[in-house]
Amino acid sequence: QVQLVESGGGLVQAGGSLRLTCKRSGVAVRINSMSWYRQAPGKERELVATVTSVGSKKYAESVEGRFTISGGSPGNTVYLQMNSLKPEDTAVYYCQATGGLEYWGQGTQVTVSS
Fold it and tell me: What is the tens place of the pLDDT at every residue in 42-89?
């Protein structure tokens, strides 16, 4: 069993920054990628950023240039640095790891006020 625990969410004003952290623990399995997803009220969960085990990174167009993903496998922690936050970034942010199976954290709330 793999556990993912997110932290770092909170309330911030538009233009501000937050850094999310996801710590992985449990059974040692090969992780191919770690990602951040988000889900806003009434909307589907969407991919925000991904980092693979070889260091390749991918971002959603809506966050490109503002968010930075770092860490990930083979380490146990992945980060999401979020700058220039906008009200539309408000959502629950989830950490996800892929390694044969998919593993998900419980999520952390990010609220950006205008």
Answer: 999 999 999 999 999 999 999 999 999 999 888 899 999 999 999 999
Which residue's entry shows tokens 């793999």? 2
Q: How far apart are CA 88 and CA 57, in angstroms?
A: 22
Q: For the sheet containing 67-71, what is the strand order?
A: 2-7, 18-26, 77-82, 67-71
CA distance 76 to 22: 8
How far is the C-alpha of 47 from the C-alpha of 2, rounded, in Å? 20
Sign (positive/negative) of CA torsion 57, 98, 2, 41? positive
Alpha-carbon distance of 23 to 72, in angstroms, equals: 9
Instruction: Give the integer Cα–Cα distance in Å for 103 and 57.
Output: 19
> Which helix (H) or strand (E) is 112 found in, with range?
strand 108-113
